[in-house]
Amino acid sequence: MEYGVFYRIIEGFSAVGLRSRQAELLMVPQLGGRIVSLVGLKSGREWLWHREKQGWLWENNAGDDFALSPQAGIDECIPTVAPCCFKGRLLPDHGEVWYKGWELDSSALARGVICSRVVLDVSPFVFERCISIDSDGSFLLDYKLENWGIEDEPFIWSLHPLKSIKEGDYLVLPDEIDFIRLDGGLGVPIQRGDVWAYPEPFSGIRLDRLQVPGDGSELCVKGFAGPLKHGWASVCNDNTADSIKISWDADVIPYLGIWINRGLGGAHHVGLEPCTGIPDSLAIAANEWKTVETIAPSQKLRWRIKIEIL
């Protein structure tokens, strides 16, 4: 098996991939730079969720409801996750980059790196992500954000990885996480800012075992941990010993979003979402919770995510 860059057509879209000795990653530049596949080569497990039907990938346009998108794999959310109005700008659902085509750097591909960039339509940002293979076989996602505007710009960046849930899956998070602040959900009454104990907010309900309280067929919850001292989070499996670990510098990315969906829209997936600010709305993060990053005019911010498949 050859390692490095490879190409594939998936659901009719041109994709570019990276293969290490541990895993295979596949990205579609045309669809917001979405990473649509992340397969562990040891077990063959596909870690990323998508609908189990033909035609599970399609294009979207500015202003589309994210719920009507493929919602497949890993999206990037910037400068907000929830739609909001900020500084007179109408910011779309899940940000400005997931529905746009990204420009690939052919010279980087020749070096074995998937580097792509996108210019935002509403906010004065240029966003870049370069994916490479580390010496240990993991994937490194290196980011750069540049402010082309003339004033300071608050923003939220959030990784948005939807991982499929298999029998035996459970979360492993840093010991410092003993509560989460909620941003929404279905199943029990939730107000934004409510605090739940982690991992067991209610007797017999274990969030680390991907359980959500409530009755019915559509249960979900979104909450946040942090600010953190330790930037990592894992999904492991009791039955197979497979695991995926995401790690980052908590001094740069201080928060972790936790999304658990047990039936909303007929889906079952979990999202471990490193993020620079909380909650999902930039307007609320900047104006109310005061938990947001800011980039100065002409400034370039950089950060890194590491993804390990074991």
Which H/E pattern describes the elements? EEEEEEEEHEEEEEEEEEEEEEEHEE
Helix content: under 10%
* CATH A-level architecture: Distorted Sandwich
Average predicted confidence as pLDDT: 96
Structural class: mainly beta
Oligomer: single chain
CATH topology-level fold name:
Beta-galactosidase, Chain A, domain 5
Integer tally of domains: 1
Sketch the major β-sheet. 8 strands, antiparallel
Radius of gyration, in angstroms, nearest whole number = 18 Å
Spatial order of the strands in the main sheet?
8-9-10-11-24-20-19-15
Shape: globular
CATH class: Mainly Beta
Which regions have little confidence, pLDDT < 50, spanning 5+ residues?
none
Give the termini distance in whole angstroms: 18 Å
Separate helix tally: 2
Number of strands: 24
Strand coverage percent: 35-45%
For this entry, give a set of tags.
310 residues, 2 helices, Beta-galactosidase, Chain A, domain 5
Lay out the secondary structure.
Layout: E1 4-10, E2 13-19, E3 23-28, E4 34-40, E5 74-77, E6 84-86, E7 89-91, E8 103-104, H1 106-110, E9 114-119, E10 125-133, E11 139-147, E12 153-155, E13 158-161, E14 163-164, E15 169-172, E16 179-186, E17 195-197, E18 219-225, E19 232-237, E20 243-248, E21 255-262, E22 268-275, H2 282-289, E23 293-295, E24 300-309
Antiparallel strand pairs: 1-2, 2-3, 3-4, 5-13, 6-7, 8-9, 9-10, 10-11, 11-24, 12-23, 14-22, 15-19, 16-17, 16-18, 18-21, 19-20, 20-24, 21-22
